[in-house]
Amino acid sequence: PKETEVEERVVPSVKEEVPPKETVKPLYGLILSVRQYYFAFNSPYPDPATRRQIDEFIEFLKDKDIKKIIIEGFACAHGPNWYNYYLSKKRALVVKNYLKKKLSLQDDVFEIKFYGEGMLEVPELPSEAPESEHAKLNRRVVIKVLYKVE
Question: Could you tell me which of 78, 125, 127, 128 has the fewest CB atoms within 10 Å of its CB?
């Protein structure tokens, strides 16, 4: 095209480029399945909609030969650092105990990690509203399940 013309190009949608939050990767006869769930401000407990999503994942996992479950808790940047660290730990433990009960698994299958506001998914300033989209995306639990391929 000439310098004054704009070349028209087809640009793929960002949604098509970004991998889904759930990923499944085979590795040495094992599958890693990753899910991410979001929490309300200042709450260690999943709301009813999130609980239903976790229950759907549990149904998927019920017949799997689970080798390891890593649960990571996170918080937004609102509130004192020490409290966010505690809250992220509490979120991870609440989800762990729920999975343990529903899947009838032993403690040694689980690994718990918690980061407080130390690993924000999206940049966030504590001065933003606690219900901003950035804050909501940072209040989460990530569940990574390693299970044997049948």
Answer: 127
